[in-house]
Amino acid sequence: MTNLNSLTISEARDKLKSKEISSLELTNSCLSAIDAADALGAFVHKTPELAIEQAKRADERLKKENAPDLCGIPLGIKDLFCTKGVESQAASRILENFKPEYESTVSQNLLDNGTVMLGKLNMDEFAMGSSNETSIYGNAINPWKIDDRGLTPGGSSGGSAAAVAADLCLAATGTDTGGSIRQPAAFTGIVGIKPTYGRCSRWGIIAFASSLDQAGPMTKTVRDGAIMLEAMAGNDPKDSTSANIEVPNFEAMLTGDIKGKRIGIPKEYRLDGMPSEIEKLWADGTDMLRQAGAKIENISLPHTKYALPAYYVIAPAEASSNLARYDGVRYGRRAALSSGDGINEMYEKTRAEGFGPEVKRRVMIGTYVLSAGFYDAYYNRARRVRALIKKDFDEVFADGVDAILTPTTPSAAFGLGEMSDADPVQMYLNDVFTVTVNLAGLPGVSIPTGVDKSGLPLGLQVIGRPWEEGDMLNIAYSLEQSAGFSSKPSKWW
What we know:
The chain is α/β, with parallel strands linked by helices. It has helices spanning about 10-15, 25-35, 50-65, 105-110, 160-165, 180-190, 220-230, 275-290, 305-320, 345-355, 355-370, 375-400, 425-430, 435-440, 470-485, and strands at about 45, 75-80, 115-120, 170-175, 190-195, 215-220, 260-265, 295-300, 405, 445-450, 455-465. It has a domain at about 5-260 and about 400-485: Amidase signature (AS) domain (Amidase signature (AS) enzymes), CATH 3.90.1300.10. The protein is built from 15 helices and 11 strands. The protein has an 11-stranded mixed β-sheet, sandwiched between helices. Helix 2 (about 25-35) runs antiparallel to helix 3 and helix 9 crosses helix 12.
């Protein structure tokens, strides 16, 4: 059997359990695909020996009864997750050659479920970016192509998105701080889930903005996302922000029955100058849910317009605090020092060499808004706005709305380099539909539901109630079934 790497998790699970295929065969198929796809820049640290060893162990486990659903499934892991003995650099020069002696809780949960790690995936440096162009490894490239240009796979989880869309792995981990799972998922025609804040442990994930970061799955289907999320999630005593809430069987909740569900359509998400393709996608998605028996309601989230400014104050503020730990003393890169240089020079030179321009920009913004003269004017005001944004969602859900439908991104994937000379704010606008979810700590999922006039994928976002990922995924599953999106990128790499 060829192209085993093109299977979904649920298809591979059934074939593994029926002994139709082995994890070793499946893993080797993925490893061959990875080796042939260097042009995509998706995998930055390959671990074939480790993968084969894990696949053999999974096959032994599969011989026995009651192997977990993910046993033997080959995955890619974003470079933000610390993986024991394997480079974990957050795509930054400052963490060059850093090999942790510990495993992040999420990747450990996946390993405990018998998964196979194929390697580490490209990303924006420290997860700061919307196009995967700030990586020390170079750009990850979208497998979708319409002309001679290389297109962005989105960011920061661009390598994860490209790898899943190109069938290099069956699924991948991502992290989402302001849309870094959902936007790349939309740009590459896959499913990306950002769970409720606290659903997945942040321990062992290199921090960007601690009150916003959340790990989640990037998969080929909603069903796969449900299977993987259940394995990733759970309470972790090592993470004080991890919620002690039981993790349900998300897959069992995918019935497709959404009769009577109340779906909110927020008027504030209709932006001036929004492309007609995005408008149509949204209208079509709304009709699909209506035809499936859902009740569509117009709702208002009045503080949405302040979300981007608030996010781009809070996230850099937290980043500047988190990134202060990179000083060249204990781990990672240390700059070469001149005679007579002291500790201050070491810090300065190490950070100047180690951090890229976007990271420096955000650290400086964060330092500025936290400084004595501006703390109240910027940071405290942004925190108050964040509370109002959360209150908007709370009130809508209290009125009986079950989920909210919005576009995921304001456009399809754009060309690499096209934003390099633009105002940084133009790039930040890619997050316009996604940041509210992080600010409010809500779950959100992006599902591919159509293509633009060039044939590039477009995604819709379902925003769920806190801790109601199962209900949210069922609505997304109904939408997925109705849309019937099955397009794949033509292989050019």
